[in-house]
């Protein structure tokens, strides 16, 4: 963790809220808050939805917060909104939080930007929180769409020099200011440089992804090749690193979990090949070769200088995301890995991608941390002005806001606002039970019913 002093407002540490809508985005948002403002008081707000992380997923991420609770979009806006009368803990006119990290999908970020902007436009006074957002990993698709949905935040964090250049080009291309774009790095790139160990078997880790590739046949192929690699190299250990258990969801929908596919693999998995969960950093601690299609785990591995293979077996295609690694020196097939290839990354490519650092790791967050501190020290911040408005995107923006219970002006629609009445323990438990049941029903539909319907439609 960084060692620089935490920014402060007056004589108190910063208070930061992190809104996240999945386990991976909670990991990025919470670690980003810790990196930008070490020592800050961080409250986690988990957006109720399809991918709200389970207790097991949160424990696996392993990021501490002062508090952690599940909220709706309207409840989030109430939590971070102005407190004109004061509530004992937050004096009148003071913002409840100094900064808010929006670690969500682009449409959610855009909706919350409009919601926060409307709250402070209607407020009697007092400074609003600094709004921070970014991406949890490699940006290989929907660059313009995702960036413009994030426009309006005070800080749009780029994970590398490469991303910063692209982000600024998109904003400049529509006439939006480029000042919010600040280069830093993925906050979870950490760990000691790789050193081969003679005290354990050579370990190959296949880092799977929930939605890449999407088809059952391709996923079975990759799992079969991992098993065949283990069978061909009995002196090696092959780990299939899973993201979630069946029934859990992460950032992307997983319709064909590897756990179920493993049960259908002819002959099963060899004794030296097994499925594993756990913190990616701990898995990388014992990894000698990382294999993936395009997972962000590749960046974590490259940062540690672990030999890393980005698979070409299914082609190098935009829909797979492995095209992002062109020029990296990491593209390889299972055939080449079976033959003993250990890819070595191109140093210029990794440096441009922000996955290596010649100085202290925390230094790459200095510029963003200083910008955050300077904005938090300002008595007033300008109104939130996203690029998308009723004038620039009248056929697009209302739908984005409506999906989160907001009207065209960013105000929660009737029936979607948080209930301000005191909530009894029984009522709270009942409400949470209903939410869990609804989320479970949705996941069942996505994972079980929808794939069947699609297969029937192909007959």
In short:
By secondary structure, this protein is α/β, with parallel strands linked by helices. The protein has helices at residues 23-36, 55-61, 73-80, 106-122, 143-150, 161-173, 216-232, 258-263, 280-284, 297-303, 334-338, 347-352, 366-377, 397-402, 425-457; strands at residues 8-9, 12-13, 15-20, 41-47, 67-71, 99-103, 130-134, 155-158, 181-183, 202-207, 236-241, 273-276, 289-292, 308-311, 331-332. It has 15 helices and 15 strands.
- Secondary structural class: alpha/beta
Shape: elongated
- First-last Cα distance: 54 Å
Which H/E pattern describes the elements? Answer: EEEHEHEHEHEHEHEEHEHEHEHEEHHHHH
Mean of residue pLDDT values:
85
Largest β-sheet summary: 7 strands, parallel
Strand order of the largest sheet: 5-4-3-6-7-8-9
Q: Which strand-content bin applies to the residues?
A: 5-15%
Distinct helical segment count: 15
**Oligomeric state of the chains in view:** single chain
Specify the helix fraction band: 25-40%
Instruction: State the total count of DSSP E strands.
Output: 15
Regions with little confidence, pLDDT below 50 for 5+ residues = 1-6, 84-91, 417-428
Report Rg: 23 Å
